[in-house]
Amino acid sequence: IGNKIIYFDTIDSTNNYSKRIAKDAAHGTVIISEEQSGGRGRLGRNWISPKGEGIWMSIVLKPDIPPTEGMKMTQIAAAAVCNAIRGVTGLEAFIKWPNDLVVNGKKVCGILTEMAGELTRIDYLIVGIGINANNESFLEEFQHIATSLAKEKGEKVDRKTLILHLLKEFEGLYEDYINQGTLEKTLAIIRNYSAVLGKSILVIRGEQQLKATVLGIDEEGLLEVKYEDGKRELLMSGEVSIRGE
Ligand code: BTN
């Protein structure tokens, strides 16, 4: 992973570019851009990606796993970013299941995993990672929910060091998953540094918002929750969005 790195000064979106080249790209190709003019977030949102401030990157993967397992790449990426941020900056990053990272309660990273293929086979997976590394200011509407590593640490972060650390972590956890067939190491990180375990959350499904308590994260990486009426459920990443209370 990361044997080939394609670097841009500016691009629409590293995920979009990855899609355009994915068919011919080698497994593990990494795309990085200083700036994205059309950065995308989950749920069709925009992802603000100013020049030189963040880490805007995508990893193209071609694993031989069924599409139902594809979202595990999000968990692997979240665990890898969490360890990398902690290792490089010393900041206490936590994982807000399934695909956000927070520092001091505010978002510093989002992950957007996209997949192409058939019912039984993955053609390729694109793991898009956006890290607010050195951003100095945020739009007013995001100020209370988003922050950057530099803001929290009080000094700039060396992006290259963070990227290399992150790719190494990702590769280790990815290989472990492919070889073992389980998410063991990834889950240990996700549980250890979870921002939601034991907490009360709001589960957002379409128009509905339901209060729930997080009981655990199961072997598949699914979130075990208990609603106010006592009903329990296992949530899959992608089908819900959660909000801290
Ligand atoms: C989210 O939290 O909604 C996910 C944000 C993902 C942003 C990254 S930045 C690199 C890659 N390219 C994109 O257009 N999006 C992802």
Automatic annotation (TrEMBL):
Sequence similarity = Belongs to the biotin--protein ligase family.
Task: Cite the entry's keywords alphabetically.
Answer: ATP-binding, Biotin, DNA-binding, Ligase, Nucleotide-binding, Repressor, Transcription, Transcription regulation
Cellular component, GO annotation:
cytoplasm
Q: Which residues bind biotin?
A: S13, T14, N15, Q36, R40, G41, R42, K107
Which start and end residues of the full protein are shown? 78 to 322 of 326
Q: Which domain of life is it from?
A: Bacteria
Q: Is Nucleotide-binding among this UniProt entry's keywords?
A: yes
User: Species name for this entry?
Assistant: Anaerovirgula multivorans
Ranges for domain BPL/LPL catalytic come to 1-178
Protein name per the record: Bifunctional ligase/repressor BirA
